[in-house]
Amino acid sequence: MAERLLRMTEQERAHREEHERLALAANIANASRGMWLGGITILAAIIGAVVVVALHGPWQAAVALVGVPLLGAAQALIRGRQ
Question: Which of 45, 47, 38, 33 is nearest to 77 (CA)?
Answer without folding.
Answer: 38
